[in-house]
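ok, trying the design again with the full structure, not the truncated one.
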């Protein structure tokens, strides 16, 4: 026993040092395990949050698609209603004198081009508006749900309906004013083209390009993109009177944020690209008269695969040598008007001519990126309840910062 005591006494410093090392190691392992557990828990929460946010954004994207399909059809009906040519066609059937006939055809020319222009530009604007509004609203709802503040109590059904009514106002009222402005630009661009003048597909494309440039850039005070509030807000109707004070404040801020985004240069650039794509689709739709003019009935029975059509020198058959690209064919303007007039029509058993434009707007990468940036910016707003105005402003600032980052990438 004394020997054990003496052994411990001689090596007491080693035992103390060993105990400190072992205790420290145990404590370090415990701290490391706690840290790893915390990191794993934070990572798990982060992944769950990403999944939750993705699901919420996907549901918002589905709501955008459903809303756009609904309003797209409504606006299409309004376009057909405001550009109706049935009375002009009936007047032409009555056999008017030459001067009156020319006047009626010129009026039909303006309405046909105006209908096509309104169909492309107004529907593109509507697609941008719906995507921006629904993602702003979804961002607010997500932010308030994750931050557990009380601002969501002000995002009532009444507020949401009032905020989202901008699209309905544009279709029912604002589009009327846009149509008047669009027709003025159409008339100035096609006035120099006579009905008997022969034009090609490139000429038609240039006409649409000129009209688009004027509508999207000229006269800022009555411009659909530079001053969208003119077409989205009534000059006589005020904020719904049955809203509470907090709802009215939030409504003003939400409308202000929507207009700020819609008036941005980024949205103007997006609209320009989308409309160019739309007019390209439209040119494809109205190319049939040029294709018919290209066909030669005398060669209808010729079999270009027959070896008898090649001479001994190995030259190409005449039917191939005489081929002319539809882009080089020119036909009288009057032959194109029926195709422009039927842009909104659909024949039984065939797909709607407008369906391709709708799908283009729904699947546009530019529009989807815009919606994602808006959602990300407004869902990242924190402490809304503490400072509403600055938080709304920070949401818009975040949006434009996201756009700059995407452009740099």
């Amino acid at each position: 026993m004394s020997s054990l005591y003496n052994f411990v006494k001689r090596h007491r410093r080693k035992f103390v040092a060993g105990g400190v090392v072992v205790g420290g190691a145990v404590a370090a392992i415990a701290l490391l395990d706690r840290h790893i557990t915390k990191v794993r828990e934070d990572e798990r929460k982060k992944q769950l949050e990403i999944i939750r946010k993705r699901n919420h954004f996907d549901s918002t994207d589905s709501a955008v698609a459903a809303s756009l399909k609904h309003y797209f059809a409504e606006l299409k009906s309004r376009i057909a209603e405001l550009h109706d040519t049935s009375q002009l066609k009936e007047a032409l059937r009555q056999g008017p004198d030459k001067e009156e006939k020319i006047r009626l055809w010129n009026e039909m020319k303006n309405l046909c081009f105006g209908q096509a222009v309104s169909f492309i530009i107004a529907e593109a604007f509507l697609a941008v508006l719906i995507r921006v509004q629904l993602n702003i609203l979804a961002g607010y709802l997500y932010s308030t749900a994750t931050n557990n503040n009380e601002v969501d109590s002000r995002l009532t059904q009444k507020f949401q309906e009032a905020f989202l009514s901008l699209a309905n106002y544009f279709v029912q009222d604002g589009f009327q004013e846009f149509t008047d402005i669009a027709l003025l630009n159409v008339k100035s661009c096609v006035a120099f083209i006579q009905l008997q003048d022969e034009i090609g597909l490139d000429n038609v494309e240039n006409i649409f390009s000129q009209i688009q440039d004027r509508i999207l850039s000229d006269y800022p005070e009555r411009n659909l993109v530079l001053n969208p509030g003119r077409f989205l807000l009534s000059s006589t109707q005020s904020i719904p009177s049955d809203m509470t004070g907090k709802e009215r404040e939030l409504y003003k801020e939400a409308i202000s944020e929507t207009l700020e985004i819609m008036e941005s240069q980024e949205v103007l650039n997006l609209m320009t690209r989308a409309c160019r794509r739309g007019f390209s689709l439209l040119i494809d739709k109205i190319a049939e008269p040029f294709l018919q003019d290209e066909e030669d009935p005398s060669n209808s029975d010729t079999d270009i695969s027959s070896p008898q059509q090649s001479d001994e020198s190995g030259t190409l058959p005449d039917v191939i040598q005489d081929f002319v690209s539809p882009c080089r064919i020119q036909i009288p303007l009057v032959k194109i008007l029926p195709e422009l007039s039927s842009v909104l029509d659909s024949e039984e058993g065939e797909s709607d001519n407008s369906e391709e434009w709708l799908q283009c707007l729904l699947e546009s990468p530019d529009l989807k990126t815009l919606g994602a940036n808006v959602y990300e910016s407004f869902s990242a707003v924190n402490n809304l309840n503490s400072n509403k105005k600055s938080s709304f402003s920070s949401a818009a600032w975040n949006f434009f910062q996201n756009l700059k980052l995407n452009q740099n990438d």
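Keeping the full-length input from now on. The longest helix spans residues 12-82.
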